[in-house]
Amino acid sequence: MRTCFAMKAGRPEAGGMYGYLKETFGIMKEEQIQKEADGLKPTVKGRFAPSPTGRMHLGNVFAALMSWLSAKSQGGQWLLRIEDLDPQRSHAEYAETLMDDLLWLGLEWDEGPRIGGGNGPYWQSQRSDLYEQALRQLQQKGLIYPCTCTRADIMATQAPHESDGRVVYKGTCRSQRAVRWDVLMSGNGGAKGASPAKEVLRNEAPDAFTAPSAPAALRLMVPPQPLADVVCHDGHYGEVSENLASHCGDFIVRRRDGAWAYQLAVVVDDALMGVNEVVRGRDLLLSAPQQMYVARLLGYSQPAFAHIPLLINAQGQRLSKRDKSLDMGELRSRYTAGELLGKLAHVAGLAPDEGSVTARELIPQFSWTSVPREDILCEM
């Protein structure tokens, strides 16, 4: 798998490569920085970050298994994080049940809820202060503005975008500030010793953000073309290029009800928790460039991404929590853990048949070259 982060422009200072990396990616753990400075591969840390909005379904289990196997096959660690950002839909009892289901499958985590670790808390609902700090950094760069547009307002300004339901924001509420995108996107914050925010903003002070008088979402500006192009080197699907301006436009980092948006929280959490490998469904593949952009603005090291094919039903739709026949409650009543893992290993190309197998027995069998790229029809 190829690491998809680019170092900031410039040359190492007198402190050597270690000092340069520490200054550039200050959020990285010191031992990881030292390994990269010495040319050694850091310990892989993967993660599984489910939302506790219902019982896990087969697609969730497949993503968890592939993430766990990728990390463990490289001698790495696997972290569990509960993404309970949505207070209306998230419930602690769902989180407890999904942890029980993971343990039933033999997918034990090395860090996370129930066992702890040095990077908690592991529930996003308890990490708001960390997201506030990241938001302030983006505000100081002059890139955050309030938006009162409804989804209906946004949809009324454009033709439907293909068939995927994406909404491309056209900047209706965007302020008319002048942003030096060439300086900001160069990654070095302007001349040495200068304030990056002051270099970026020509006509406005970096602290000139004004809170809206009415409830509003907060959006992050994306650069104009061609600076909006972001390239992700995905470990399974190869190079993926996305133009942020045409794909999504300025995107929300905090909802109008105060809930934190996924695209900000996931970047902050992966960086602060030391996650350096993200394995997940390909439906999130085009989120990777947005997350890379946020990470770059915040000065974070970016994880390596590898996306996996989706499990789909006979209608070609990806499995979801609405498919009750394939949720873990039903699956546990029909199969043993070994039988369920055997079926998933077979469709993933890791086993010649559907024979019962344990998660640990699959570790030496795991190889990305065996995993298909096309979506997988689920007929269980």
List keywords for this structure.
380 residues, alpha/beta, three-stranded antiparallel sheet, two-stranded parallel ribbon, 11 strands, globular, disordered N terminus
Tell me about this structure.
- By secondary structure, the chain is an alpha/beta fold.
- The protein is 33% helix and 12% strand.
- The protein has 14 helices and eleven strands.
- α1 (16-24) crosses α2 (30-37) and α10 (262-272) crosses α11.
- The protein starts with 15 loop residues before the first helix and ends with a strand.
How widely separated are the two ends?
Answer: 31 Å
Q: What order do the strands of the largest sheet run in, or round the barrel if closed? A: 3-4-7
Number of helices: 14
**Main sheet properties:** 3 strands, antiparallel
**Structural class label:** alpha/beta
Ranges where pLDDT stays below 50 over 5 or more residues in a row are 1-29, 159-163, 188-208
Tally of DSSP β-strands: 11
Percentage of residues in helical conformation? 25-40%
Oligomerization state of this entry?
single chain
Structural shape: globular
Percent of residues in beta strands? 5-15%
Briefly say what this structure is.
The protein has helices at 16-24, 30-37, 58-73, 92-105, 128-140, 151-156, 181-186, 196-200, 244-247, 262-272, 288-298, 328-334, 337-347, 359-362, and strands at 45-48, 77-80, 144-147, 217-220, 229-234, 238-243, 251-254, 277-281, 304-308, 311-312, 376-377.
Secondary structure topology:
Elements: H1 16-24, H2 30-37, E1 45-48, H3 58-73, E2 77-80, H4 92-105, H5 128-140, E3 144-147, H6 151-156, H7 181-186, H8 196-200, E4 217-220, E5 229-234, E6 238-243, H9 244-247, E7 251-254, H10 262-272, E8 277-281, H11 288-298, E9 304-308, E10 311-312, H12 328-334, H13 337-347, H14 359-362, E11 376-377
Parallel strand pairs: 1-2, 8-9, 10-11
Antiparallel strand pairs: 3-4, 4-7, 5-6
Helix pairs in contact: 1-2, 10-11
